[in-house]
Amino acid sequence: MPDDGTIEMGLTDRDSSIAVVGLGSPIMCDDAVGLRVSQAIEDMHLADVDCHQEAVGGLDILPVIHGYRMAIIVDAIMTGEYGPGTVLIFSEEDFDSKINEAASHDVNLPTAVRIGRQMDPGLMPQVIKYIAIEVQDIKTMTETMTPEVEEAVPSACRAVLHLMDEFRKQSSSDRSS
After folding, report:
1. Which residues are bridge partners to 51 per DSSP?
2. CA angle 104, 110, 116 (to 5 degrees)
3. Tens digits of per-residue pLDDT, 9-43?
4. CA separation for the pair 20, 11 (Å, rounded)
């Protein structure tokens, strides 16, 4: 940040360039998987990565990801199309059909990101990726995940690390061009 207090490149003064945001509830069985993955990445103590474990949705995600160059959002998903524990990677474009014109209290994650890009484009990450883990039980109140989802945590962590590596490579390539 320059001495005059202004912000360069529209970013805030975050110490890290990458945010890993695990979403979910720690007491609703498989819904905790995003939190667990984010915590596992945090436990690695990566220099340029901030990890967040959040029980937020909609527009409340925006202040969490503001000011980072990249955000990776990790969450449970229940499509019924994949076996429990399947790790899926999505980009923003994958959710274009899910963006809606709902009231602010009904805003889903893709719509919140689109609103954030429209309202505060300089604060939003350049890249947002999503890691979704197919789950089977998000209704049972327990701090224990199902075995298939528990076993997926290391795979989801590898997916997060892969996305971070790809982002760093692309950023290095962009700077040397």
Report:
1. 20
2. 65
3. 334 455 679 999 999 999 999 999 999 999 999 99
4. 17
Domain span at 57: 14-176
- Say yes or no to pLDDT of 107 above 80: yes
Answer yes or no: is 165 within a domain.
Answer: yes
Q: CA-CA distance, 51 to 21, in Å (whole number)?
A: 6
- If phi over 0 gives left and psi between -120 and 50 gives alpha, with beta otherwise, what is residue 128? beta
Identity of residue 83:
G
β-strand pairing of 49-54 with 18-23: parallel
Evaluate whether residue 136 is within a structural domain.
Answer: yes
Do the domain assignments include residue 8?
no
List phi, psi (to 5°) of 24. Answer: 150, -170
Number of domains into which the chain is organized: 1
pLDDT, averaged across the chain: 87
Cα distance between residue 21 and residue 18, in whole Å? 10
Beta-sheet pairing, 87-91 with 70-77: unpaired
